[in-house]
Amino acid sequence: MATYRSVFDAAELRAQFNAAGINTKFMASIWKYVLQNPGCELDEIPDLPSSAYRLLRTKFKPFTSTVHSVFHSTDGVTTKLLIKLQNGAFVEAVIMTYDTRLGKYGGKPRLGGPRSTLCISSQVGCKMGCKFCATGTMGFKNNLTSGEIVEQLVHASLLTNIRNVVFMGMGEPLNNYTALVEAIRVMTGSPFQLSPKRITVSTVGIIHAINKLHGDLPGLNLAVSLHAPVQEIRCQIMPSARAFPLEKLMTALQTYQKNSQQKIFIEYIMLDGMNDEEQHAHQLGKLLETFQVVVNLIPFNPIGSSSQFRTSSDQKVSDFQKILRGTYNIRTTVRKQMGQDISGACGQLVVNLPDKRTRENTSLLTDIEDLRI
């Protein structure tokens, strides 16, 4: 059986067009047509050279993935897409709805209304093995192609207008660097036209990739899954940290910030008794006091009854936040949990069916976009 490439796989489409002597200017019009006509055949795209139709017909498909299932959370603000890939594997993408009016600018509520952020996967499974993350229990299966990454945005865009994209789904984005860069370049070009400042890439700290990220993708947001203020604790909960010593990671982040002149988002999961004590808050504050950062404290989402971790109490999270804010003047937020009942919350993405737990909080939330103000 022939394996087709996604028409959104820009590098492959560009290479095939160049080899056939077809002007690559047609690529954007192909993407626009498929985006507007998701059930189309490639032969239906108007105004292409005849040689382009032959090439598209034999080597490409409008989509190489399909939406297998759609799950809506009971809070009404989270939708999880279970997406089946051409090789039979599954990945998950999550749409989160926020309210612009809950953000503030100049001390006043911002104008606007609900908007949607898409959490995208970059790999099937993940080789990082973070012990608090469900995806890590899958192990690593394979990288997604750039087309499979972009198709998640296309599938989600058919359900709602996507304003922001965060690479915080399944996988370590910087371990699939080439496909990530190609996919983001498609997203920021025609017809998607996403601003780089509305795209966030999250990483556990792949130093060699961080060192070249700004040069390849200037203007986007970098989020670092730090999760501990010292190397010893990082290694206990994030085995991959052994390959990326904290001191070298912080040096790479200093260089990145100097070159990009942008704030860095620091993600910190709150694990009861492991990294949530006052001493840890002071250690984190001292580690970050020379940086321009926003720290996002993330309540731990259970990943099964066998989990070795417990969620920090609200009081501990609040005390931790007060130390970072009050003593070190570091902007610190607490992530509101979304989509736990459909296993769509942070750290819960693993291919399975959602449980039936309900949630009472139905209010719209603030998101990463508001943290830049």
UniProtKB/TrEMBL annotation:
**One GO MF term attached to the UniProt entry:** RNA methyltransferase activity
Cellular component, GO annotation = cytoplasm
**Principal location listed in the UniProt entry:** cytoplasm
Q: Kindly list the cofactors needed.
A: [4Fe-4S] cluster
Keyword terms of this UniProt record? 4Fe-4S, Cytoplasm, Iron, Iron-sulfur, Metal-binding, Methyltransferase, rRNA processing, S-adenosyl-L-methionine, Transferase
One Pfam assignment: Radical_SAM
> Do you know which InterPro entries this protein is assigned to?
Aldolase_TIM, Methyltransferase_A, RNA_MTrfase_RlmN, rRNA_lsu_MTrfase_RlmN/Cfr, rSAM, rSAM_sf
Cited PROSITE patterns: RADICAL_SAM (PS51918)
- Domain named Radical SAM core: which ranges? 112-341
Q: What is this protein called?
A: Radical SAM core domain-containing protein
Protein location: Cytoplasm
> Which GO BP terms, alphabetically?
rRNA base methylation; tRNA methylation
